[in-house]
Design brief:
CATH superfamily of the largest domain: Malate/L-lactate/L-sulpholactate dehydrogenase, NADPH binding domain
CATH architecture of the largest domain: 2-Layer Sandwich
Helix content: 25-40%
CATH class of the largest domain: Alpha Beta
Strand content: 15-25%
Radius of gyration: 20 Å
Distance between the termini: 20 Å
Shape: globular
Order of helices and strands: EHHHEEHEHEEEHEEHEHHEH
Number of helices: 10
Number of strands: 11
CATH topology of the largest domain: Ribosomal Protein S8, Chain: A, domain 1
């Protein structure tokens, strides 16, 4: 996204537009606000690949019935600390947030809450849910399966998804949140490059013939992070989110952008841990802040200004963009404006 070609859109304006677009597709106001919260947090944090660039896709699936704007979300608790939630093919943001609420409720009672999620869909930025958990004082872990796009270490064909995982801890300031895909880059960066009509680096992935490509439309698979380590982590996440929840796994998961006539059938997994079962929350935050202060004293390597802990840069970007507006590429801006025109919503 080149700085010269972008324009800054105020958060409130983009949030209002997103909510009204979803409302025009039959999504209740409260649920539309949840989706807007998630997408806007991604854009505000600088994770533009998971922001409003996804809105047109959600509208397409709401329009063809593979996303239900009024899902029957059912939670069944199976024990003091565990349960399963059926998302009813609803918007993944709404489904996963409900799972977080249930996990926190169990954690308050028993110290930990674990929820497996079935029949969900793309839920945006994983850190969004961890942010909700840590804001309530919990330690959080969240993950999701996605359709096959990771080429396993030593293989020649995609099998697992990018399968993101996020872990977070509350602090007195910007929380510590590690949010990462198991591929060397998240697929969202490919989607963003497509929307903006720009090439990608040749080392991001391979085409269907197994060759490097700079064409985001030709990408058929991405490399795992750290070779066999990323490949193995992707498998672990698929087991939690697919096998354990009764959902399709690996290549059997309907593709987000190709199998448009099928519900996504995604599985998620979330865990909330009550920090106060170990020590007082404020004591934990103070101890962690002491650790972060010491971490910041590590001398930076040549070419680096300072060290940032996981989630810190995103927190700083959020403050800056909240004050100065969200940069939107002209190609994406026109896509959003056209979407609004079709639905009678002004951008």
């Amino acid at each position: 996204m080149s700085q010269e070609s972008t324009q800054r859109v105020p958060e409130a304006r983009l949030r209002r537009f997103t909510e009204r677009v979803l409302g025009a597709m039959g999504v209740p106001a409260a649920d539309a606000a949840v989706v807007a919260d998630c997408l806007l947090m991604a854009n505000l944090s600088g994770v533009d690949s998971h922001g409003v660039v996804r809105l047109a896709h959600y509208v397409a699936r709401l329009g063809n019935g593979t996303l239900d704007p009024l899902p029957d979300i059912v939670f069944r608790r199976s024990g003091p600390s565990a349960g399963m939630l059926d998302g009813g093919d609803g918007l993944g943001h709404v489904v996963m947030l409900r799972a977080c609420v249930e996990a926190m409720a169990m954690a308050r009672e028993s110290g930990v809450g674990v929820v497996g999620v079935a029949n969900s869909s793309h839920f945006g930025m994983t850190a969004f849910y961890i942010q909700r958990l840590v804001s309530e004082g919990f330690i959080g872990l969240a993950m999701t399966d996605t359709d096959a796009f990771l080429i396993p270490f030593g293989g020649r064909k995609a099998f697992f998804g990018t399968n993101p995982i996020a872990i977070g801890f509350p602090t007195q300031g910007i929380p510590v949140i590690l949010d990462m895909a198991t591929t060397s880059i998240p697929y969202g960066k490919i989607a963003l490059a497509k929307a903006e009509g720009r090439p990608i680096p040749a080392d991001w992935g391979l085409n269907a013939e197994g060759h490097p490509t700079t064409d985001p439309n030709a990408i058929a698979g991405l490399h795992p992070i750290a070779g066999p380590k990323g490949s193995g982590l992707a498998m672990m996440i698929d087991i939690f989110c697919s096998v354990l929840t009764g959902m399709p796994w690996g290549p059997n998961i309907p593709k987000m952008y190709e199998d448009l006539e099928q519900p996504r059938q995604l599985g998620h997994f979330v865990m909330a841990i009550d920090t106060q079962r170990f020590m007082a929350l404020e004591l934990f935050k103070a101890r962690l802040d002491d650790m972060l202060a010491a971490y910041h004293e590590v001398p930076p390597a040549e070419g680096y200004e300072r060290l940032y802990y996981p989630g810190e840069l995103e927190g700083l970007r959020l403050r800056e963009r909240r004050a100065n507006g969200i940069p939107i590429d002209p190609g994406l801006y026109e896509e959003l404006r056209g979407l609004g025109e079709r639905l009678g919503v002004e951008l």
